[in-house]
Input
Amino acid sequence: AMAGAATDAEAAGARVDSTVDDVTSRTGSMFTKLGSSLSNISPIIGAPFTKLGESFDAAETKCHGFKSVMSTIGGATLLGLGAGLVGAAAAGIHLADSMEQATNKIAANADISQAAAAKIGNALLNLSAGTLYTGQEIATAFAGSAGQLKTLNGSALTAAQSITVMSAATNLAMASGQSLASVTASLSGVLQTFQMGVKNSGQVSDILESASRATGMSVTGMATSLERARAAAGAADPSLSSLSATVLDLQEPGEIGK
Output
């Protein structure tokens, strides 16, 4: 009976070891995938998780079993990663708080619900992956012009329309080297002055960049000049394209809008 019990206990132990080893073999992949997903939000948050996954994977190729893997990784590595995870958690909390503040500004300035603002915020967060800006920076820049864009559009922008505007704004800001907030404000101002729908954001962005480069003026300075020129034209109602063409012909910074 004792021999049978010992055999059963040994078998149970083997099953436990097998289960733990199976979990260990999947741990590296789990942390690596988690790190990759979190890095889409912020590299600061995702990096420690990715590193932990790589450590598990590297150890798993050298040995087998949970105890061996943990021994290979080492206490120092785990302590370092632990500190990294704590730092990542703190960064994540700060990022989430900043993003929430930006979303609140969108809701207030566009006079929309928190739920609607959250959809826009999430869309802008996804947009940040292909730019030099964080989701919070893009959302904050958009919030500054949300009210003006709502007036132009006749209603608050949808998440898709917000992406259209901010894709153009981020491209223009990166190309010009000016702040995203100021470029977004200039883009919105020109759209409203010339009564061009938000769907034309990309076109307006291209015109502002071309005219700015040709004259040596800043994007914000060019936008202001074009808006003044449009106001001075009155009933003539020139288009943005025609006025920008005049600017390119003059090639003289500061002449338009006097």
